[in-house]
Amino acid sequence: MPELPEVEVVKKSLKNKIIDLSFRKVLINTNKLRYTINKDLNKIITNKKILSIDRRSKYILINLEKNITILTHLGMTGKFFLVDKKKIHSKTSFYYKISNRDKKHNHVIFFLNNDTKLIYNDIRKFGFIKIISTKDISKNKHLETLGPEPLSKKFNLGYFEKKASNKKKNLKNILMDQSFVAGLGNIYVNEILHLSSLNPYKSIKKLDIKDVKKIIYFTKKILKKSILEGGSSIKNFNNSDGKDGVFQQQFKVYGRNNKKCTKNYCKGIIKKSIISNRSTFYCIRCQK
DNA sequence: TTCTTTGTTCCGGA
DNA sequence: GTCCGGAACAAAGA
């Protein structure tokens, strides 16, 4: 599923391809996503130019002329495909196949004014597309409660101590808390705690400064690394037209139930448990 | 049939 | 009153 690095890569890819273009029309095949799509979407964005594209947490914001912003979230299985009509030469061509992949889940098709179309495909329909007013972004209910971006300077030792030290939560839950730090999903929280050699059940109150420094360091490190790898995997794919933004990652702990710990010096076993309804993987030996 | 996934909301207990 | 964790919900596929 798309995690923060994938969303960042999708944002960058869209930025390179669709800025300064305008929408010619929008076709809604299915309006029942996480939220019902505004039935006037076509009317609202047709002939509007795309000015800029931002990411906040795992949300993508496409800012248009006239104070219009498309706020979108990919949920679990959302993807954007950018399909260039000029490159589809035959039904056996790569671009044709891409544009017809999982076609029944192509819920929204945005036609752009350069003969390309941006397809929103979402198997599980947990994502959404909303229209909001650009000037009200900071007041939006999805965005206003979010904590700092994990890659920003605001997410630092001082912030962690100030915001978390009086809480009773365990480590896993505080890192999953979107109002504490925005955009870390289940997979990355598992990976960060493994890299930090810290147990997901450990109470925040029992952390020392060294632990907190490790968490912050590894959070930034793994996100940056994944963004770079995602960027290069798209590059190696030789186009961003068909790339769905979800790239195969090498996870060190997530999904490795009953397998050996991936750290060279550790011969522990990775165990799976459930914390707040989310699958949690950790090494019973090195994560203390 | 059951399990999985995310973000959000609701609820009961501390 | 507030904080916390667990349950439920949406959809579809394995």
- Distance from N terminus to C terminus (CA atoms, Å) equals 28 Å
CATH class of the largest domain: Alpha Beta
Radius of gyration: 21 Å
User: What helical percentage do the residues reach?
Assistant: 25-40%
Count of DSSP H/I helices: 7
The secondary structure category is alpha+beta
Keywords:
alpha+beta; Helicase, Ruva Protein, domain 3; four-stranded antiparallel beta sheet; 7 helices; DNA-binding
Which SSEs are present, and which pair or pack?
Blueprint: H1 4-18, E1 23-28, H2 41-45, E2 50-56, E3 59-64, E4 68-73, E5 78-84, H3 94-100, E6 106-112, E7 116-122, E8 128-133, H4 157-164, H5 171-176, H6 186-195, H7 209-236, E9 270-275, E10 278-283
Antiparallel strand pairs: 1-6, 2-3, 3-4, 4-8, 5-7, 6-7, 9-10
Helix pairs in contact: 1-7, 6-7
This protein binds a DNA duplex (14 and 14 nucleotides) through residues 1, 32, 34, 58, 73, 75-77, 105, 122-127, 142, 167-169, 173, 178, 185-186, 275-279.
